[in-house]
Amino acid sequence: MIRFDNVTKTYMRGQHPAVENLDIEFSRGEFVFLVGASGSGKSTMMRMVLKEVAPTRGTVYVAGRDLSRIPSWRVPALRRDIGMVFQDFRLLPSKTAYQNIEFALAVIGTPRKVVRRLVPEMLEMVGLEDKGKRLPHELSGGEQQRVAIARAYVNRPTILLADEPTGNLDPSTAEGILELLSEINERGTTVVMATHDQSAVDRMRRRVVEMVGGKVVRDEQDGRYETEGALSVISGNLPDDSAHREEHPLDDVESRDGSGAGQDVSAREDEPASDVLEEELIDEREARLAQEEDAFSEDEDEEGLR
């Protein structure tokens, strides 16, 4: 479903990679937790899946497609099959809960009849069937996140990416969000969630991938948040700022075990993705119209030849 084939991403020439020599695959229907200190490469991975950024070296595959071969005008169609949930919700503040979900359908030309059926279904699924007319500021943090999940899932994507979706929520509210994501996963959607929520990871016991300095240092099924592994940052075996040090974060460990094979790397993924939801959706509509115009022009050319 998602595969990174020897992927390295460097944001600026001469600086250390955000991810380096990444080889990992997430299968269809999996629920995967990405864990690691801030700046370890988790968000960069998600941005590459969304084709927001391109790898400096290597290949990213999504649903069997090489993203480097997808032209820019087809990127909106790719993203239609990938839902994205953020820590800060990113709802359109001037639109109601209903309209936020509706907007994601309207810009891709979904018929009104289908919109009127799907949006109430989504509100009911996330437990907000009676709050569709409320603006984001009239909802609690947990309710706003539920709207964001409904918006991300309304097109029934095969992949759902969640970047710290419980980071701003209290524990009981976060538990409800995790149950909702688990329900979506049970419906067949692949869920990849970056998180620092130890209780969620320990409770759900799904696949856990830990990253340090842009490299995968742990990949285990039925995993817990912490591990006894020598390369783990979150377990205290490396200092929390190791991903931001000038030297490679694994150098000290490698020198202790005698391998001495460390190479310079550092994460530059601390630059947050731009909040461009509305613009991206509008771009999708424009790309769809451009595609239709190209098809119409081709039909006219064929008619002229005849």
UniProtKB/TrEMBL annotation:
Stretches with biased composition (Basic and acidic residues): 241-257
Entry-linked Pfam families: ABC_tran (PF00005)
Keywords on record: ATP-binding, Cell cycle, Cell division, Cell membrane, Membrane, Nucleotide-binding
Subcellular location: Cell membrane
Main location: membrane
Ranges where the ABC transporter domain occurs: 2-238
Superkingdom as given in the UniProt entry: Bacteria
GO BP: cell division
Protein name per its UniProtKB record: Cell division ATP-binding protein FtsE
Biased composition (Acidic residues): 272-283, 292-306
PROSITE patterns (alphabetical): ABC_TRANSPORTER_1, ABC_TRANSPORTER_2
Region entry Disordered, spans: 234-306
Molecular function as annotated in GO: ATP binding
Source species of the chain: Brachybacterium tyrofermentans
Lineage: Bacteria, Bacillati, Actinomycetota, Actinomycetes, Micrococcales
